[in-house]
What we know:
The chain is an alpha+beta fold and 84 residues long. It has a domain of 45 residues. Helices cover 19% and strands 21% of the residues. The chain has 2 helices and 5 strands, in the order βββββαα. The strands form 2 sheets. A 3-stranded antiparallel sheet has the order 1-2-3, with no helix packed on it. The structure holds zinc ion (ZN). Zinc ion binds next to helix 1.
Amino acid sequence: MREEDIPTLECFLCSKPFKYGFHFYEGRSVPQLAMNLCRDCENSNWDGIIPSERITKHLRDKGIQAPLNKNGWIDIPPIGSKSN
Ligand SMILES: [Zn+2]
């Protein structure tokens, strides 16, 4: 597989496209929140995503109830956790 054939996803938070496939995993898809996150955003939001109006609307549109952590932020579900 050539590098340019690797699918790209767009980060929900920063809109940066990142490669996702083969051995290029510059981020991941988070089905529990119906969004893709690049590694930078996941790392900088390790203690939770601040529920901005855009994110709140996104989750509401998708019918997702995301529990808030003790800071009132949305926890990013760890890799391999069960969806829903
Ligand atoms: Zn990002």
